Amino acid sequence: MAAVNVYSTNVTTDNLSRHDMLAWVNDCLASNFTKIEELCTGAAYCQFMDMLFPGSVVMKRIKFRTNLEHEYIQNFKILQAAFKKMSVDKIVPIDRLIKGRFQDNFEFLQWFKKFFDANYSGTDYDALAVRGGEQMGSGGLSAPRGGGHNAKRAPSIVPATAAATRPIRQAVPKMSQTSRPVPNRNQGISNQRGDAGKVEELNTQDGFAPPEDVDGDVPPPPNEEEEY
């Protein structure tokens, strides 16, 4: 099946700003481009062709993360071959695109957006899975995105249940210095006296007292009766 060709890139109300164009690319390809100039690698256009015409490019040959100019050229040659295969009447200006200048890359992206809209069938496409999870673009979460033209990403909201299940740290009360018990020395002395009194009481049980406390001689113990 041949592609629908697009020849005109005149300025219309459909033309988007650079921010909107990057948001469209990032939404379609799950990429992280922050500048139009980053599209000079050609990898994004190759995957767009795979999205529009499955099998028109060999995905394993595409260099998704590269800073080498000769690999940019390789990607754009893959794109040009896909154009020829699908009868796309467009010459890719490889020499200008790989230089990474804004104007050249923005003009080509504007044309490609119109070409995409004319040929996209609406089929679901998991771009990140198709390229094996490889990242494109250097922006991360700061890259422009949106569900539509000029749409902004809503900030992530933490569910209330997540906050409820989070353990709460309770402060451990510190022991005040006044709460520590102070030993009573007088009580210790009284306890010692009490112990001495108990010893004296035990010594005087059954009417016997220590020899030094009894006046006079100590009587001898009574003789035990002999058993007959």
TrEMBL record:
Keywords from the named record: Cytoplasm, Cytoskeleton
Compositionally biased region (Polar residues): 175-193
Keyword Protein biosynthesis: no
One example GO MF annotation: microtubule binding
Cellular localization per UniProt: Cytoplasm, Cytoskeleton
Domain Calponin-homology (CH): 15-117
A GO cellular component annotation in the UniProt record: cytoskeleton
Region called Disordered, residue ranges: 138-228
Cytoplasm as UniProt keyword: yes
InterPro entries: CH_dom, CH_dom_sf, MAPRE
Ranges annotated as biased composition (Gly residues): 138-149
Family in the record: Belongs to the MAPRE family.
Protein name, per record: Microtubule-associated protein RP/EB family member 1
Organism: Cryptotermes secundus
Gene that encodes it: mapre1
